[in-house]
Amino acid sequence: MPAKRKVSAPKRSAERCDAPADAADEFPKSRGIDVPSDPEESDLEDEDAVDSDFDAALREMAADQGFDSDDSETFAAEIDADADEGEGPEDADDDENEEGSDIHSSDIDGASSDDSLDGEADSEEADSDGDEGEESPLVRTASRSTDGQQTAVGDDGGDDKLGSELLDGEGMERLTIEDFGRDITAWKEYRKTLPQIDPGYASDSSTEEPANTIGNVPIEWYADYPHIGYDIDGKRIMRPATSDELDKFLANMDDPDVFRTARDETNQQDIKLSEEEIDIIRRIQGGLVPDAEFNQYEDTVEWFTSQTMKTSLSGAQPHKRGFVPSKWEHKRMMKIVRAIRQGRITRSAPKDTAPKYYDLWADSDRSAEAGGATTGGRRQRLAAPKQALPSHEESYHPPAEYLPTEEEKRKWLAADPDYRQRNFLPQDFGSLRTVPGYDRFVQERFQRCLDLYLAPRMRKKTTQLDAEELMPKLPDPRDLRPFPSTESLVYEGHTGRVRSISVDPTGLWLLSGSDDGTVRLWELVTGRCAQVWNLKETVYRVAWCPNAEVCVFAAAAGSRVVLVIPPELCDDQKRLVSEELVRAGFGRTGGGDDDGDDDSLPVSWDMPTSAEQAAGVQVSISMHRTAKSVAWHRRGDYMATLTSEEGGSAVLIHQVSKHKSQRPFRRLKGAVQHVKFHPTRPWLLVTTQRYVRIYNLMQQALVKTLQPGVKWISSVDVHPQGDNVILGSYDKKLSWFDLDLSVKPYRSIRYHTQAIRQVQFSSRFPLFATASDDGTIQVYHGMVYEDLNQNPLIVPLKILRGHEIRNSLGVLDCLFHPIQPWLLSSGADGTIRLWT
After folding, report:
1. What are the percentages of helix, strand and coil residues in the chain, rounded to 5?
2. 103 pLDDT tier (thresholds 50, 70, 90)
3. Are residues 418 and 504 in the same domain?
4. Which residues, 6+ apart, have CB-to-CB distance to 224 below 8 Å?
5. Could you tell me the residue range of the domain that residue 403 belongs to?
6. 530: how many CB neighbours lie within 10 A of its CB?
């Protein structure tokens, strides 16, 4: 017989309750039983109660496992004897520790002696010899190590493995007394090592009473109290000690289970989540069924069959009366027919259909019946508008051309939600299973319900209109000829920006002023430069006198305005008339007709130098500030100048024949941008940054103020008939005003892409033009009718391109020829161009 293998048991603790601590290692958690973690906390009285209950349970389990009454009594007597003698694992361990000898593993668990074990081993060997071909019997003894050692069961290696499987719960569900060879003491100790069910947080707590009985009350209400609630006996539950945030952080850094701990706010304690609870939370976050054992794809159970029964419920032959008509039913029907023929049975009288309620608006509904809104005095139901059908963009797998780019995504996210063309971005999903739920579904359904319930709906008559019918009926530009359309001539010679140009009343000569400090006289038809005046300062404006009887022009250069008579352009008679007009003021003595304001004005009429007189300069009007603009009156004796000075002295009116200057305004509102005389009335147009004020010089009163609604006015011009005004602005707008209609613009046009520098009417043709910094000149047809009931006709005709843009400046000035439908323009590139 093979020798019995023994193990050296380490020194056990004096407490018997140390055994279950090792049982947690020998019996895995797969058995579903939690081993008590700290049984040393229970007192001796509780241990005696547990032992008494355990002995009673052993008697019942012995009876259940097939023991008769005698064996049961013997089994109980042995248990009582063991209890009376006080022999247990503690005494056995004490004796073994004193002897200091090697013992068998079964002695650790309370086995009787080595002799009994040897006898049992002999009986086991005899049984194994008698039963050939059978497997080895179950292990007779079982033992366990108290310090985490491996369990030794049986007497050989195979039995040790089998016993380990039995104790681990892998080979069988539960060990019985037969597995221990009816060794009551060993089986008793084995049963004591089985873990108890811990009725704690890990178990089912659905039927337990809560520790804190405050109910559904916010815990914040107890923030100022030392307790957090009351238990079931009405006693206060004191608030547990809390630590500051730093201590919490350090504790969390040392706690490996910090990420699987939840806070119970009601009981003010941290609860460690089990694996099952963490698995439930993860499944809920992943959108899965919380129960891992639930099969959501289980086959359907047909409690009621869907197959139609093809056989009858009974196999009996059908009765004859099922084929023969019933004579009793025939007699009954004939009786009813005769009663109807004799008039004894009549139809019931029609019920009174008088309405209980009356429609107060019935007449209005009938009157609207012709329009289809009502039928028969009853209003038709207005069906809810149908939603648009989904497009390719709403597909879960749209084509590539419908998917937005990264730039489009950024623009869509940056845009305001109310101004987005669609409230979603097309996305591409690999399959329909991966498409998530639409997060705006409830919101869109709610908004549609509000539209259907709250938004009033009514039936309106609509007419089918073509988009071309809504466009204004404009004439063909080819029917509005002549107008300038081709560049015919370029005047080159200036080295700076050409700020201003002017044509003499005869239309033969052209003046130009530039930043290079020169004024050039050009022969308009040939482009030949006839004469050059060097004024040594920037020339802001040049203007011919509109009086055809004289040959004089004014040039604003620096802080003075000079009056020049070109000697080569006029004959002797016209030269004498011009010199008499310009020099007549030098022979006058002051004080006669003066009003006393001349001495206070910053203006002086001076005689030019001899060199300037030889060049044709007759008079020099000196000012304290830079002269920005010069405008002649239509009669040719008065001219208005604009300086950079602020206040009323910025605008001055000069009388050339008397060398007299006056200030029409003592105070002005805003910075003046432009001044111009009205062509037919004694009015002066003063343009500020935002408004155009029209003053009556005879009555010395304000006539009206034009409000174009632009940010900065750049130029203004008046129609030759005097009833319409156009103005351009630096914010790219052109405004047309009808002075007899309103102070608001009749029409605003915005075709230029940059600031408008100049606007100009033609004196003989229904044309006007605008010059802009975008390098273009736009020509319009502007017909003003004599019939006041007919609005002006404005038609865009041509866009002229030719000037180069220099330093963000394009065309600075434009002017129509006084006789021909020609247009002249000057730009920042230093050239002058003729358009015919």
Report:
1. 30, 20, 50
2. very low
3. no
4. none
5. 393-430
6. 14
Parallel/antiparallel/unpaired status of strands 811-816 and 823-827 = antiparallel
Q: How far is CA 229 from the centre of its chain?
A: 46
| Cα–Cα–Cα angle for 62, 67, 71, rounded to 5 degrees | 95
* Per-residue pLDDT tens over the stretch 279-313: 999 999 998 888 888 888 888 777 777 776 666 67
Residues 489, 559: one domain? yes
Rg (CA), the chain: 58
C-alpha distances in Å from residue 781, one per residue of 139, 262, 728:
119, 82, 16
Kindly state the DSSP code that residue 480 receives in the 8-state scheme: G
593 and 741 belong to one structural domain: yes
DSSP 600-664: GSSEEEEPPPHHHHHHTEEEEEEESS-EEEEEE-TTSSEEEEEES--SGGGEEEEETTTTEEE-S
Residue 596 shares a structural domain with residue 733: yes
In a domain, 239, yes or no: no
Structurally, how many domains does the chain consist of?
A: 3
681-703 pLDDT per residue, tens = 999 999 998 999 999 988 888 99
CA distance 194 to 19: 10
Domain at 743, CATH number: 2.130.10.10
Is residue 556 within 8 A of residue 539, CB to CB? The reply is yes
Neighbouring residues of 125: CB distance < 8 A, sequence distance ≥ 6: 1
Does residue 397 sit in the same domain as residue 529? Answer: no
Q: In the predicted model, is pLDDT for residue 498 greater than 90?
A: yes
- Angle (deg, nearest 10), helices 184-193 and 44-64: 120
Residues 526 and 617 in one domain: yes
Q: Would you call 517 helix, strand, or coil by DSSP?
A: coil
Enter the tokens of residue 392: 């390719």
Task: Let me know if residue 244 belongs to a domain.
Answer: no
Distance CA 511, CA 544 (A): 8
Residues 17 and 143 in one domain: yes
Within-domain flag for 459: no
Task: Indicate if 650 and 749 belong to the same structural domain.
Answer: yes
Report the C-alpha gap between 20 and 54 in whole angstroms.
Answer: 15
Token pair recorded at residue 357: 């309620």
